[in-house]
Amino acid sequence: MTLQSSPYMPEQEGSPLIGPRSHDAFGRARQVFPDGTTRVTIERDPVPRYISHGRGAYLFDADGRKFLDLNTNFTTLIHGHAFAPVIAALERQLRDGTCFANPTEKEIDLAALICGRVAGMDRIRFCNTGTEAVMFAIKAARAFTGRPGIAKIEGAYHGAYDWVEVSQASAPANWGSPAEPRAVPHYRGMPKTVLSEVVPLRFNDQQGAVHQIRRYASSLAAIVIDPMPSRAGLITPDPAFITALQDVASEQNVLIISDEVLSFRQSFQGAAARYGIEADLYALGKIIGGGLPIGAVAGRTAVMEMFNADTKTPAVPQGGTFSANPMSMTAGLVAMQCLDEAAFAHLERLGDALRARLVQAIERWQIAFSVTGAASLFRIHPKRRAPRDFRDAFWSASEAVVMKELTRFFAAEGIILPYGATACLSTPMGEAEMDFIAQVFEQFLASGAQRLEWSPT
Ligand SMILES: Cc1ncc(COP(=O)(O)O)c(C=O)c1O
User: Fold this and answer.
1) How far is Cα 85 from Cα 94, in angstroms, rounded to an integer?
2) Is 118 helix (H, G, I), strand (E, B) or coil?
3) Inter-residue contact 341 to 169 (CB < 8 Å)
4) What predicted TM-score, i.e. pTM, was given to this entire model?
5) 155 CA from centroid of ligand 1 (Å)
6) pLDDT tens, 334-369?
């Protein structure tokens, strides 16, 4: 595919869609942050879009432009922005105090709600981020099994704990053979010992996964799996892959950690239940905090006992100055109470209808795109055939250009579509928003078909 004279791809000055206020703000930001941002995940084109406020499904930037938000802080805000019941509860809590060195009853209510929904969650502990949740789950698995290592899916994102960062951004030049994916460091200076304790697996490759788990079982504490890993392609797991993982894990006494920091939003009982995974431990975050920072590790009583500090030093000490702070507990409790079966059914209907419409548009225009995802999540791939794993989903340089073009086209029409990452729906959305998204995608395909020389990949 070649891209020529696109109105959305000015060569030098970047996107004209970011206004002067954002440019000014970024100028100031560059003087205080190493690259002008405080998160590597912030999109910039060529500068980040600074936000003024959000309302429901919509965002307003500092220059007064309105956008339908398909990011909602990386899938966190399942009820959209400034959700009235959460605001009301937080206003009360704010006046009563924001954090204490003692527990509050709010944490028991949120814990009971979450454990009451998911059969495998007998006990739970709160922390502040999904990264911590994954880290504590891995520590508990290590303490329980007496082994240090983990297996993880190549290309899957699980936050910033060193062991799960391995092979998070593998590329063709370093990812090794399909049968034995290489453990690829994620930052300069990553200790070799970390690399030696991580076994990357390819998603949906049941034979390869079983082979690698058996081979390294004596040093493996757990298989860490997001049932539908977003950065690895947001691909549906094959039932046979799940069964194979489950069987080899129990054969080798390796635990299964279901990282549902992102995918817990896939059903009332979460993602493992949806895909038939029986996990020993779960990592949660994002939606369970109602828009405030949160993480949680939950699981079987016997494994969660690793955190028990009743009688002696716990196998895994877990604290945290802000863990279970009443603000996050309050926001999470209200958000989760409002996320009832009807809310999930609404999101499921919207998601199914939208994905079907995107696929129909692709078929109409016969352009090399495909769509993956489930429930309130979707991802558009610049591939004719929907990918089956991270390697399949990996973009060539020209595909990356197409995806940038897609994101810019959506922004020009008033929709924030995360560049290459997972897009998500929220409960305040309805048919009107689905029409909007489907129409903009159709326009993009139509304009692409006319303007560009498309060649299928
Ligand atoms: C699957 C998964 N695990 C862990 C994390 C880390 O969560 P946090 O950013 O709250 O540390 C994320 C964040 O996007 C995630 O998607």
Assistant:
1) 14
2) coil
3) no
4) 0.95
5) 14
6) 999 999 999 999 999 999 999 999 999 999 999 999
